């Protein structure tokens, strides 16, 4: 079972088709579970509960013929907010917070993709939801826009909101999430703090495309000094090591035919994606269907 602590920033990591968007829909009450139980803010999802939930969709859902100010005003009124209740002030604060004050009265159709994403975030935050659900929130954003978006999300989290985001960006999850869950084919594979999930990894991650990898060699490689987790999922051999510069030459020396069967080698610093591969046997970039 998956338990998301109240007041946390929690990430759902998995490739396309792993069930991230489906889970968000269940939490938002847009779908009903075929089995099991879903509790949101301690209650079964309902129409009344949706007023306490903010949802940022993966795809843009803005009216191009409205302005940012009009967009937020309409959304606020739909949530029962009023001018006498400070709606105008709230709108001005959010537009300033997401950097859209100067474009508040421009048509949405004239905004860049990053501006539209920031407007959608402002719309999500407008009614001060207790639960914020985000589906790939920073897709297509430049680093400055991404930083501005997360500044607003952390401000909401500091105010007590629980944030759940679906992503396949390991750097984003590592930097911002208190906890993450690995999803694969609609099932929970693992969950925990990012540091805990990375605890068994060595410094360098080595990904070797080796369709004819002799599996009998795996035990020998795993016993080498400085070698950590080793996972074989055809056609990829994945290993984390203390020093890739020492490991790679030794690997080619041990490989039959001097490594003739090795098609490619990729080296980088170990991340949550390496922990995901070790546990699931698949990459976060694998695409296996729509969610």
- pLDDT < 50 runs, ≥5 residues: none
CATH architecture designation of the largest domain: 3-Layer(aba) Sandwich
Report the C-alpha radius of gyration, rounded: 23 Å
Mean pLDDT: 92
Helix content: 25-40%
> What is the helix/strand order?
EHEHHHEHEHEEHEHEEHEH
Major sheet: size, sense and barrel closure? 6 strands, mixed
Strand order of the largest sheet: 2-3-4-1-5-6
Strand element count = 10
Beta content comes to 15-25%
What's the oligomerization state?
single chain
Number of domains: 2
Q: Count the DSSP helices.
A: 10
Overall shape? elongated
CATH homologous superfamily name of the largest domain?
Answer: P-loop containing nucleotide triphosphate hydrolases
Structural class by SSE content:
alpha/beta
CATH topology name of the largest domain:
Rossmann fold
Termini separation (Å)? 20 Å
In the CATH hierarchy, what is the class of the largest domain? Alpha Beta
Summarize the structure in short.
The protein is of the alpha/beta class and 291 residues long. The protein is 33% helix and 20% strand. The protein has a 6-stranded mixed β-sheet with strand order 2-3-4-1-5-6, with helices on both faces.
Describe the model.
By secondary structure, the chain is an alpha/beta fold. It folds into two domains: 9-196, P-loop containing nucleotide triphosphate hydrolases (Rossmann fold, 3-Layer(aba) Sandwich), CATH 3.40.50.300; 202-269, Alpha-Beta Plaits (2-Layer Sandwich). 33% of the residues lie in helices and 20% in strands. The protein has ten helices and ten strands. The chain has helices at 20-28, 68-78, 87-97, 113-125, 143-158, 170-176, 194-197, 217-222, 244-254, 272-280; strands at 9-13, 53-56, 131-135, 162-167, 179-184, 187-192, 204-209, 227-233, 236-241, 264-269. A six-stranded mixed β-sheet has the order 2-3-4-1-5-6, sandwiched between helices. A four-stranded antiparallel β-sheet has the order 8-9-7-10, with helices on both faces. The longest helix is centred in the middle third of the chain and has 16 residues, at 143-158. The protein is elongated. The model has no long low-confidence stretch (mean pLDDT 92).
